[in-house]
Design brief:
By secondary structure, the protein is an alpha+beta fold. The protein contains 5 helices and 15 strands. Helices cover 17% and strands 26% of the residues. The relative contact order is 0.21.
């Protein structure tokens, strides 16, 4: 069948109104597992410092009756620190773009500033989980903080040629190899021996799947009969040194591309993000220099590693 001759069809009709949904759909992830799990402190200088200490090694302790007291030398605390880093996102919108009737937002500048805040939040997670070199900074060089993987020095499993980060250098990548269950359990044991209790293993999506396999998830399928569903993944791992939850993080090195090359065992109480006073998340309008509206949002922060020996890292994974 065909339409009668001279039927008005939409294909030739003039004056149809636009049908545009008054929403903007954005699925870019904004979860920040690392900064969400750790503590938060306030920094009052661009060099944020703290102290660590340790007890003397346990030893046999038997004394003579009536003996006079002698005094062992006291061990001083260790003073360490990290530089604050400034991260910023900018936006400029023309007066016309602010004035026109737009779908999904009332004013373009407001929408763009809200978007920049989310982007900045992701940038901070990316920086903390990166392998950047710490930089003191000067008038022409931006300060850079010492990131998560740059702090590990005690419980470290690296590939051949790999080296730990320092207060002035990034960690050196070594030869990549496959993750094994022994690597994970040894890291747990070493952290426990030092006095730590890692309660999370943080990894990217690739190593998340490998963890499921090495911990038995691929070989053993669990059925919840009452829910009529099957579970074939590991949400938590309970071993000889306690229960450890798995936290998947897109911003672990290479996590966004599925080429993540490390897992870290974390005790969240031993880490904190420290924001410089009044600069946690600052939005500012800039002076007008023309027919536009300018602004930026910034954050000044650093990573506080309260005691790296209570955590572990398995690096250089393929």
């Amino acid at each position: 069948m065909a339409a009668p001759i001279n039927t008005v069809l939409t294909f030739a009709q003039v004056g149809q109104r636009e049908d545009l949904l008054d929403k903007i759909v954005n699925i870019s992830p904004v979860d920040t597992p690392f900064t969400s799990m750790i503590g938060e402190e306030t920094a009052q200088a661009v060099l944020h410092e703290w102290q660590t200490d340790a007890l003397a090694a346990a030893a046999g302790n038997a004394q003579l009756e009536g003996d006079d007291v002698t005094f062992a030398a006291a061990s001083p605390t260790v003073r360490i620190g990290n530089r604050t880093q400034i991260s910023r996102k900018e936006v400029v919108v023309s007066g016309t773009a602010n004035a026109v009737n737009t779908a999904g937002r009332n004013k373009e500048m407001v929408y763009q500033m809200a978007k920049r805040r989310k982007e900045l939040k992701r940038d901070k997670e990316f920086v903390l989980c990166s392998n950047q070199a710490p930089v003191t900074g000067n008038s022409s060089t931006a300060r850079q903080l010492r990131p998560l993987c740059g702090w590990f020095a005690t419980n470290v499993d690296r590939g051949a040629g790999g080296a730990n980060g320092t207060s002035s250098a990034a960690a050196t990548d070594g030869t990549q190899r496959a993750l094994t269950l022994a690597m994970v359990t040894t890291g747990q044991q070493n952290a426990w021996t030092q006095g730590g209790a890692p309660s999370y293993i943080m990894c990217g999506p690739k190593q998340r799947g490998v963890l499921t396999t090495v911990m038995g998830g691929a070989a053993t399928k669990f059925y919840a009969v009452e829910d009529k569903k099957m579970t074939n993944t590991i949400q938590a791992f309970e071993g000889d040194f306690g229960l450890v939850k798995i936290a998947t993080n897109r911003f672990v090195r290479g996590g966004q591309t599925g080429a993540d090359r490390e897992i870290v065992g974390l005790d969240p109480e031993l880490w904190a993000i420290a924001h410089l006073t009044g600069r946690k998340m600052v939005g500012e309008d800039l002076a007008k220099t023309g027919d536009n509206e300018k602004g930026f949002v910034l954050s000044e922060y650093t990573l506080e590693s309260r005691q790296e020996a209570g955590n572990f890292i398995v690096a250089d994974l393929n």
